[in-house]
Amino acid sequence: MTRSINLMLDFFLREKGQPIHLNGVLQNVIIREAVDKIQATDEKIVRAATPIYTGDLVDYQNERYLITSEIDQNDQSYRGRMRKCNYAIAFNWNGNVKWFDAIVEGKSFSIDVGNVISIPDGSINIFLQDNADTRDIALNQRFYNTHQPFKVKGINWTLKGIIQLSCTLDSMNTAYDDVENNIADRWKYEIAHTYALHIHQGTIAHVLLNETLSLNVTATDNGNEIANPAITYTSSDPSVINVDQQGQVMGISLGQASITAKLTYHPTVWSTIEIRVAETGTHFYSIAIIGNPFLKTGQSASYVSNIYDLGTDVFDQSVQWSLRNQDDSTPIMGSLTASTGNSVTIKAGSSSGANNKALVLTATLVSDPSIIAEKNISLKNLF
């Protein structure tokens, strides 16, 4: 009787099994739910023709599972219980970040029999495959889960093939931790990139029908200008405004459309400008701010606005100046100390925290406040 059952199992594994990857190796297995009712833990029973061990990783239906117990085996097959890994956890070893698929529990959980024992709030247990990388995890090592910081307070190596970590909430370090991506101490070993993209013609510009306008666009990383950045341009209405990938705009028909410039490899960084197409005879003012793009903390520098009408210098127009931090934070890390005609003097703040930050100087045309120009000014420490 036992022989016939084993032969049947062998047949079903060979002919009816589902494909999975067991520790990266493709094979057929039989899978069924571990319990009658659907549970959040998503546990299944897996039967395979090859050995199954506690701690093995299974890729099944685009999810990763951890074998949490060896149940039995016979001459033809091996049977075990597997549970879906519900999080990926990043551990950081002096800048060497490694990700691990893990089972994270807010309660003490016996993976062998499913018993749950309440433990204090703010504590979690993590179950990982026991391997050379996870054995490097140390007591008091920090990590993030669901954008919250934790610290390893206990390590249990007694579970065959599995490492259990007992963890408690830790304090957040915004200077070093990449909270958004759940990586502790990331910026302690890497440079945090803050990209920005700016169209210097302001928020509105004009182009004559069947004429062209070259957009003046710069990109910065941590306030420093990027040489030859890859930028992608799009028009909201190509039948009115056409734009090529060099930022050359052409007026196709009377009307208006928006041009969006995006950093090609960082498409979440973008800027937009409204372009209006009009016939000859209309004034089309634009502003260019001339001055040093760098300013040392505590020092001053002068800036001048050149005003153009269809590319020709005009001297009967004036601007209003304003200053803000590039990240819109407060207080402003500089001040306007003098303004004469269309020139202005800026003094950078003396705070050491301003290093690698940036100011944005804005010139607004008095006769038409929709015409503005902005200039990024990177701040550097004096020494």
Automatic annotation (TrEMBL):
InterPro entries: Big_2 (IPR003343), Invasin/intimin_cell_adhesion (IPR008964)
Domain BIG2 as annotated: residue spans: 210-261
TM helices/strands, residue ranges: none
One family name in Pfam for this protein: Big_2
Record's protein name: BIG2 domain-containing protein
Species whose genome carries this gene: Paenibacillus durus
